[in-house]
Amino acid sequence: MDKVECCIPFILQNIGCHRQKHADDPNLPPFFLGVNGVQGAGKTTLVSSLASILRGSPFLLPTVVFSIDDLYLPHSLQTHLANTHATNPLIRHRGLPSTHDVALGVSVFSLLRNGNAAKIPRYDKSAFDGSGDRVSQELWETVNLEGKPRVKVAIFEGWCVGFRALHAKELTQKWEEAVKHRKEGGYQGRLGWNQLENLEFVNEALKEYDKLTEYDANLCSLPGTRNNHDAESTHFVYEWRLEQESALRISKGAGMTSEQVIEFVNGYYPAYELFTDQLRAGIFGGEQGKQLRLVVGRDRRVKKVMAIPGKAQSAPTS
After folding, report:
1. How far out from the chain centre does Cα 200 lie?
2. In the prediction, which pLDDT does 25 show?
3. Which residue has the higher pLDDT, 250 or 183?
4. Which of 15, 28, 236, 292 is deepest in the core (most CB within 10 A)?
5. What is the mean pLDDT of residues 133-145?
6. What would the pLDDT profile of 117-133 be if each residue is shown by its tens digit?
7. How far apart are CA 154 and CA 146, in angstroms?
8. What is the DSSP string of the chain?
9. Considering the entire predicted model, what is its pTM?
10. How far out from the chain centre does Cα 94 lie?
C-alpha cells in the first residue's frame, strides 16, 4: 500500500481536531505534523507528496516542509564539535543529537506559530565531499511574507524526530545487554561496540530536542501529531542509505563513497537501538489518534499500519 494513502486520512482527521480546538482563535496557528523514519525509508518522497496534496484542490492549505537535517551545524562548527570530542566516534560526523542547531529550529517554529515571516534553513549534504554544510541564508525559502497566504500546515521530518532521551538506568541496561550479546556472538548491532560515556553524551544532548516537539505539542497548544514511518528491519537502512548516496553523487557530482556510507550509518545505528522502542510504544502518554505507525518492507511499501496506542493491521494489498 502507498504511504500517502495511509497518511492522508490520519492527517485530515487531526487537522479537523486542530481547527475545532482553535475555533475561537481568529489567528488560527498552523497545524504541525512530525514525520519520523529510518534513513532511506522514503520520508522525503512522502512529505513532498503530502505537501503537494495539501496545497492542491480541494484542501488549498499553504504547506511548508522542514527537515531536521536542515538544522545540522555548519561544517565549521561540526568540525569543531568532532575535534573537541575526538574520542567520541558518534559525533565524528553529522547525524546524532548534538550535531543540530536546536535553537534555530525553535526560532523557526516560533515564527511559524505566530504567523511571522520565517526563513526555512537548508543544508547541502554534498558539500565538502559529503561531509555537508549549511546553505547560505540568501538561498533559504522565506514563508509568511506580507501579502502572501500564511502557512497553515508545517511538516517537520527527520530520522530522529520524536526520539526521547532515556533515563540513565535504562540507557545503561540497554548498553549492557548489547555488550553481552556482542560477546556471546551473533550480534548485528552497533550499540555494544561503543563506550557508555559516549552514549551518555548523545543521550544528554537529546534532552534539548524536546524543545522542538514540546513547543509543538504544548507551548503551541497543537496536537503534536507524529507519523512514525518504520521498517520491518532497521538493517534496511544500510542498503537504503547506499542507494541514496549513489543518487546524490549522480545528481550533485559529489558525495560519500560506499565505505564512507557504511561508517556513516554505523554512527547512527546505536541511536536506533536505544530510542526506537520508546517511539514505537508511543510518545504521547497514551493519547489516542496522535501517532500513526507505518511498517515498510525492503521495497519501501507499507506492510502494516497501526495507530499508537492501538492494534496493528496488515496493509491492504493493491
Report:
1. 21
2. 85
3. 183
4. 292
5. 97
6. 999 999 998 899 889 99
7. 18
8. --HHHHHHHHHHHHHHHHHHHTTT-SSPPPEEEEEEE-TTSSHHHHHHHHHHHHHSTTT---EEEEEGGGGBPPHHHHHHHHHHTTT-GGGSSS-STTSB-HHHHHHHHHHHHTT--EEE--EETTGGGGT-EEPPGGGSEEES-TTSPPP-EEEEEETTTT--PPPHHHHHHHHHHHHHHHHHS----SGGGS-HHHHHHHHHHHGGGHHHHHIIIIIT----EEEEEEES-TTHHHHHHHHHHHHHHHHHS----HHHHHHHHHHHHHHHHHHHHHHHH-SSTT-TTSEEEEEE-TTS-EEEEEEESS-EEEPPP-
9. 0.86
10. 14
Cα 301 from chain centroid (whole Å): 19
Q: Do strands 302-308 and 312-314 pair parallel, antiparallel, or not at all (unpaired)?
A: antiparallel
Cα separation of 49 and 45, whole Å? Answer: 6
Mean per-residue pLDDT over the chain, rounded: 86
- Measuring CA to CA, how many Å separate 31 from each of 6, 47, 299? 19, 14, 31
pLDDT digits (tens, 9 = 90+) for 199-209: 999 999 999 99
Q: Please name which of 179, 206, 202, 203 lies closest in space to residue 191, comparing C-alpha atoms.
A: 179
Burial annotation 13-48 (CB, 10 A radius, 16+ → b, else e): ebbeebeeeeeeeeeebbbbbbbbbbbbbbbbebbe
Does pLDDT of 100 surpass 90? Answer: yes
Pairing outcome for strands 31-37 and 153-158: parallel
Please report which confidence band the pLDDT of residue 255 belongs to, taking 50, 70 and 90 as the band edges: confident
Residue 102 pLDDT more than 70? yes
Task: Spell 118-134 as b/e; 16+ CB within 10 A means b.
Answer: bbbbbbbbbbeebbbbb
Q: Is the pLDDT assigned to residue 275 strictly greater than 90?
A: yes
